[in-house]
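Practice problem. Given the sequence and the SMILES for nicotinamide-adenine-dinucleotide, write out the predicted structure.
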Amino acid sequence: MTRRVRLGVAGLGRMGRLHAENAAAARGIELVRVVDADEGLARRMGEELGCAWSTDYEDLLADDRLEGIVLVTPTPLHVAMIEQAARAGKHVLCEKPLAFAVEEAERATEAAARAGIKLQVGFHRRFDPDWVSATARIRNGDLGDVYLFRTSLRDMSPPSLDYIRNSGGFFVDMTIHDLDTARWMVGEIAEVAAFGAALSDPSFADVGDIDNAVVTLRFENGALGVVDNSRVAGYGYECSTEVVGSKATVRVGDHRRLHTTWLSAGGARLDWVSDFIERYPQAYRLELEHFAASIRDDVEPAVTGADGVAALVLAEACRRSLDAGRPVSVSPAAGAAEAGSPRVASR
Ligand SMILES: NC(=O)c1ccc[n+]([C@@H]2O[C@H](COP(=O)([O-])OP(=O)(O)OC[C@H]3O[C@@H](n4cnc5c(N)ncnc54)[C@H](O)[C@@H]3O)[C@@H](O)[C@H]2O)c1
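Answer key:
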């Protein structure tokens, strides 16, 4: 029988609740403890899921039974919490982004490497069966030479302004998913050019952020790409990708919660997901099971801290491009090339 890997979850908000429920339900995981700064929330989740609960992150670190921590606290806390986990010898699955800035993210990956703990980053699309299958076939050559990469990530409605304020900004919080997908599916990115605007509500501009963006990409292999993102798409949640090649084109992205179509006079109505939690139940489960399996089998996770750093380098380049109003070149860093980590080279 598969050994159950003993995990704890820190942070039980929008995403943490989902990870905790998945951990409690997975056959190969024992959810030992959940922690949230909000005592009422921690108690409710602990009682609901039948595990220990408390309000102090130190309780996870001090629990000898725990092998790994799923870190779902606000982004500004990630790096210090990874460093603490590394000191305590606990493996970490950290929600994206690792940090706001590349140097901070590197502190986390270095602490993990020094301590010999596994550090997986929460790019859940890498576990979604649709994207996994498309990427495997691209790598197998079924698409031929890649010409174009297009991806859309649009939220129906934005998170709270409090969340936005602590998110690291649009590119670091949102576009980062697409930048990771682009690297994974097509290869390293040589240049980005970003346009963005606060269109739905002046509050975004008030906190120095945007709510819509378009980013164009030039890959090192010569392919071109375009990313469009919105926090306020209104009609529902959309996450779709298309890759055009010399032999074939693949489109990924099915947004139906149910596979029904209601036809009535002069029209048809499809069911459509409203957020990432409805769209990706399977991906989040598989992501967590992958983390547990990498601990159980003592192998590197498929999405590492280096991937988290590389995506952050690209997100920072998008920010610089938006600020400067021109494309920004990104080149592989000396010493980080092996991990596929690029660096902003020049404007
Ligand atoms: N992969 C994805 O699809 C995805 C989606 C949304 C959010 N995220 C990421 O997940 C992380 C959390 O986002 P969220 O939307 O769940 O935020 P949230 O604000 O809903 O939840 C954060 C929780 O952390 C708790 N917390 C704060 N400080 C704490 C501490 N010191 N110790 C323990 N708990 C503490 C808060 O009380 C809150 O319950 C962010 O890094 C975000 O970027 C990822």
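Check your answer against the key. The pocket of nicotinamide-adenine-dinucleotide is lined by residues 10-16, 35-38, 41, 57, 72-75, 77, 95-96, 122, 124, 163, 173, 276 (CB under 6 Å).
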